[in-house]
TrEMBL record:
It comes from Trichocladium antarcticum. Residues 722-734 have a biased composition (Basic residues). Residues 617-734 are annotated as: Disordered. Residues 655-669, 679-698 have a biased composition (Low complexity). This is Sec1-like protein. Pfam families: Sec1.
Amino acid sequence: MDGFSIIKEHGKAIVDAIRRTAQNDWKVLVLDDATRKLIDSTVNEDDILNHNIANIERIEERREPNPDMDAIYILSPQTHILECLLADFDRRRYRRAFIIWTAALSDVLQRRLDAVRRQMGGPPDLLLVDFYPRESHLITFREPHSFLTLYNPTCNDLVARHLRALASKIVSICITLQEVPRIRYYQPPEHAKHEASVLCMHLARFVQQELDGYQQWNRNFPPASPRPPSVLLITDRSMDLMAPLVHEFTYQAMAHDLLPIKDQDDGKVTFHLTINEGTDAAEDKDALLVEKDSVWVSNRHRHMQQTIEKLMDDFKKFIDSNPKFAGKDPTKTSLGDIRDMLAGLPQFQEMKQAYSLHLSMAQESMNICQKHKLLDLASVEQTLATGLDEDGKKPKNILDQAVRLLDDPDVAPSDRLRLVAIYALYRDGLIQEDLTRLLWHASLQRSRDSTDQTAVENLELLGARPLKQLKEPWQPIPPLFERSIKNVALSDEAYALSRFEPAVKQMLEHACAGDLDTTLFPYTIPPPVTGEESFTTQGSLRSAAPRWASANRRQAENRQRIIVFVAGGATYSESRACYEVSDKHSRDVFLATSHMVTPGKFIADLRLLKADRRRLDLPLDRPPPKPPAHLFERPAPVPPVAPPPVPPVAPPPVQQQQQLGPGMGQQMPPGGPRPPTKALAGMSLGSASASSLAVAGADLRPGTSGSDVGKAGKKDRDKKDKEKKKRNIFGLKK
């Protein structure tokens, strides 16, 4: 989807803040570890240095003092970072400090900063960019621990603090987008109530408080805009437990599910592949999956079948435009053939770099799909997840179909466990003995330390009911949103395996239609009756396009903005759904979440939902970081400046050298006589004797002893004193 990008807005906010503060004077930019990661996610270093920034430094690292230059600090509001800043002030490391915080300081930290305000070039500023744009409309906080913090019962005392931190980051998104949205939150129905069912309500309340506080601080926010009022929809992982379990066959979701794609600590998403495999030029490489990769962006939300067709079509055009491939039939060329042909074409490096990555990923994904019978598995999963078969009817003999797959050795153990969990959700609970039998039938839970059954049973902490009593009747859970039969019965077999739609997509469809249930999604502040959320008619005079214009399309600058936040992690199918609704309804829908969830990550977290908190290694349980000790070291004293060296003088001829007088048993040093430094050092300034003063002030000439010099000096002074007294008597002045 072209147009607006949160990546660009995030980077623009950072660069604008630096440019405003630097103005026309060269300054040093000082960052901490957290703000460095934030800035690196959307801004190139050259873009910063081009705005009168002489150097970029890290506040935690050793730095040379620069007292003649001002510094711009962009810092995160942490205690140890403030202590680093105060250490800089104490040592006058820079001339003046211009401070920008990425979130508001606590009252305690603010009081400590106020005590040194005289060293600042102005009042501290706020730059609310504490989030990581991953795609044009996808935002994460890089907090994979969030799920366990929110849902593990042993972490209850951490939840409020974590929710406030999430609220602060959500508000940062709103401020960057220059929006004050109407806030709605997911309130689970009665049958889905659980211990954590109030998470969304509390999070929404914290966000509302933060937004209100910001508007009081900045009375001019938000700026006037032709866009309709924005909306923030706050949900959590418990709203849809099927989405992270069901196999998805769109390119991005399928690749993240099946391939060893890594989310690096610095936010980079990489896939390891071998370029020119089988040749002398073979090379291992970690390829990046980024927004600048047009092949990735244009194909990631397509069904894998469409992606392969697109790659093959592009290759056909390549063959037709290159006579080297005359006689090749592109319809009989496999993905592997295409990749091998590209590898042998050094003259087409640019095209090879663009397509070899995605050809490799597509081929490897399809190999795994066929090897582990994912198409057969997906057919049963779709029926269980939707409650309807491919014909839109209630399924029959679904348990028999599931058991056959659990028996199949070609189905991977992780996929069998996902199928058991999906079946337990479909049945709204199994008798514990039946769950155990299913797991044993699937060759799972065979060892004493296995946690497969624990993973399924822990779905209870998310509002599901994986277990039930023996004589308790089965009552299918009503779906959160009514299913549309017309979207279920699909003629194409491949697309029939994609009948399931995430709850996020259905929520957005109802929101855009203006009929989203206010019981399931209440407001934090109810809107006026006349302003009830009818997104289809909402707008302004500036957004009213003439009839001959595209009836359903708005100009990009007038599109309404909808922010969806999923606490506890979002799936790639939910990300795709947000893009699809954006295109369909001419909205800008942004998905924000603590982290992206793959099926493997979700199952791993389920296993730990009742684990001892000490095993989780949560950041909130770690000791608070401390400032580096070297920041408090005093600089070494500056050594005195050495006198300039005396130029060497050639010694006189031997026959002209004179011997020193009696008592001076050494020759005169080269360059002439030198002052008696030892005698000067031994002087007493309190009551200097005549002899000591005489020695100190005498002209030691060759051939005179120290005693002779003292006597001569005394006679000269006595004579001068008598003459002076005589002149004064007659009133004479010399």
